[in-house]
Design goal:
Helix content: under 10%
Number of helices: 1
Structural class: mainly beta
Number of strands: 11
Order of helices and strands: EEEHEEEEEEEE
């Protein structure tokens, strides 16, 4: 399963970006998709996850109310809409696919496949 993350860039604090995770056909119906991020010197952090079964979503505490994950099964794509971005949101964002995620939604080890990452910079 090859994932491709895109949409990163430079944005001012308070601005918005939409990240895209493109997956092979059929992936979203069998794999949960999550977004993680990793800032320099920090551990990889789970941001949001969308399930394969019913599209239910989960968010990390630091992004609740600001980020929205969604999917378009027909386009084999998962989106992460990021609003009201803060400097602490700056990181490389990765999408990941897992077939047996279970309850460990934000544990990187729960995911089988990873995209290459896209850089988000939040700065004035």
């Amino acid at each position: 399963v090859q994932l491709q993350a895109s949409g990163g860039g430079l944005v001012q604090p308070g601005g918005s970006l939409r990240l895209t995770c493109s997956a092979p056909r059929g992936t979203l119906e069998y794999y949960a998709i999550a977004w993680f991020r990793q800032a320099p010197g920090k551990e990889r952090e789970g941001v949001s996850c969308i399930s394969s079964s019913d599209g239910s979503t989960v968010y990390g505490d630091s992004v609740k109310g600001r980020f929205t994950i969604s999917r378009d099964i027909a386009k084999n794509t998962v989106y992460l809409q990021m609003n009201n971005l803060k400097p602490e949101d700056a990181a490389v964002y990765y999408c990941a696919a897992g077939s047996m995620v279970g309850v460990h939604l934000f544990h990187p080890g729960s995911y089988d496949y990873w995209g290459q990452g896209t850089l988000v910079t939040v700065s004035s």
